[in-house]
Amino acid sequence: MKKRILTAILCITVSAGLSACGSNSSAPQTPPSGETQNANAAETTQPAGDPVSGGVMTISLPASPKNLDPVKYTGTYESQIIDTIGDTLVEYNSELTEIKPSLAKSWTVSEDGLTYTFSLRDDVYFQPGKFQDGRKMTAEDVKYSLERSKEKSAMNRLDMLDHCEVISDTEIKCYLAEPNAVFLTALTDAGNIIIPKEEAEGWGDDFGAHLVGTGPFALKTFELDQQATLVRNDKYWAASPYLDGVIYKPVSDGNQAVNALRTGEINLAT
After folding, report:
1. Model's pTM, two decimal places?
2. What confidence tens digit (pLDDT) does each residue in 171-210 have?
3. In what side-by-side order are the strands of the sheet with 104-109?
4. Which of 259, 214, 255 minimizes the C-alpha distance to 235?
5. What is the 3-state secondary structure (H, E, C) of 172-235?
6. Which ranges of 86-206 does DSSP label H, i.e. alpha helix?
7. What is the DSSP code (8-state) at residue 28?
8. What are phi and psi for residue 88, nearest 5 degrees?
């Protein structure tokens, strides 16, 4: 589900999604801070159904996310937001049938199944934060993120990992304690997104409210039990999202979510 939601956010091309995001505006909207509004797209002369750039999509979640720190999250609702902000080394395709490259361009596995060698992209930048200004991601960040997950993950998401070795800025080896066929699958989890050490250690216990990653949208504000407001990352390495931003807000009552869809208060209910 979360993979399909992210795909929808990145590739809003279906007419239903566009009509919901572009129904009442004559100019692109910037994401609000601290309040909810309809997701409005820029006025366009294109026929209905064509992609429209701009606007903010509001997505409801059945429960309120509690913490966006990758090593602390325990629920699906947190992971949906984390996946929008960050990227993993590898990911599933949209059909969830195979694992494909993401921040890692390619990888090899040793004959004994203990060593995975990843070749990394060299055009990936972190979103700017308080403790770094949007620097390039390197293998050191991968080592830090994966070993942090191994040591601190609330769900033991990388318990099969022994340690990582940086070979160069764009190459890293991951050593397993013993062969484990689900290692690549574990790497697709939102708890294993790649993050900058400066931000995680600079914020400490508050990192979950100020998450920084390499994904298509950057976290602007996180208001517990209210909403998470994200803005487009213009330096995203993969593709330029159509949307200016995304708002996630908790709507626990199903009838309320349906009514919000009908009125345009939200554009996508999960």
Report:
1. 0.82
2. 999 999 999 999 999 999 999 999 999 999 999 999 999 9
3. 104-109, 115-120, 171-176, 161-168
4. 214
5. EEEEECCCCCCHHHHHCCHHHCCCCHHHHHHHHHHHHHCCCCCCCEEEEEEECCCEEEEEECCC
6. 139-152, 183-187, 197-203
7. P
8. -105, 170
